[in-house]
Amino acid sequence: PGLIQNFGIRTSTAEYGVLEPEITVTGVLAYNGRDVAIVQPRAGGYVQRTYGRAPDDVVARGAPIADILVPEWGGAQEEYLAVARTGNSELAAAARERMRLQGMPESLISSVARSGRSHSTITVTAPISGAITALGVRPGMTVASGQTLAEISGFSPIWLEADVPEAQ
């Protein structure tokens, strides 16, 4: 309370309304700060390919951001395939669980089981539609699990930040 009095701070309740009389002010369109997605890989590896993305590019949900080679996943998949060929379902289930615990998506695990071939490259995709506001991935990089590759800001809604003079 003492600081509020010393600085002459006044507060009031924010409310929606129409400014009267009509005025012309400058403003900036801004991304919604509540609709942001951070794109991170589930495992560390090497960036093999990027898809020509740059900051401010608009991407759709599911659009590829980068292909990452994850050597540990290839080894775990080969182990699973070898165990599956023996016919021991208990060991195969344990090897499948190991792949899941390493961060492999279920779709990749199913693909390995169906095709009988290992897939050690994963494509990291955009979780939402929007604009890329930060991009930290380049071909040939080494990435760690949980490292931020990109930040995507959604378009629902877009904010208009207007500079209204205090006197008005």
Task: Please outline the helices and strands.
Layout: H1 2-7, E1 27-30, E2 36-39, E3 45-50, E4 58-59, E5 64-69, H2 71-86, H3 89-101, H4 106-115, E6 121-125, E7 130-135, E8 142-143, E9 150-153, E10 159-162
Antiparallel strand pairs: 1-10, 2-9, 3-5, 3-8, 4-7, 5-6, 7-9
Helix pairs in contact: 2-3
- Give the integer mean of the pLDDT values: 89
Overall SS class: alpha+beta
Strand order of the largest sheet: 2-9-7-4
Taking the alpha carbons of the first and last residues, their distance comes to 28 Å
Textual characterization of the structure:
This protein has 4 helices and 10 strands, in the order αβββββαααβββββ. The chain has about 170 residues and is α+β, with helices and mostly antiparallel strands. The strands form 3 sheets. It has a 4-stranded antiparallel β-sheet with strand order 2-9-7-4, with no helix packed on it. A 4-stranded antiparallel β-sheet has the order 6-5-3-8. A two-stranded antiparallel ribbon has the order 1-10. Helix 2 packs antiparallel against helix 3. The mean pLDDT is about 90.
Quick structural overview:
By secondary structure, the protein is an alpha+beta fold.
Task: List the defining traits of the structure above.
four-stranded antiparallel β-sheet, 4 helices, alpha+beta, elongated, 168 residues
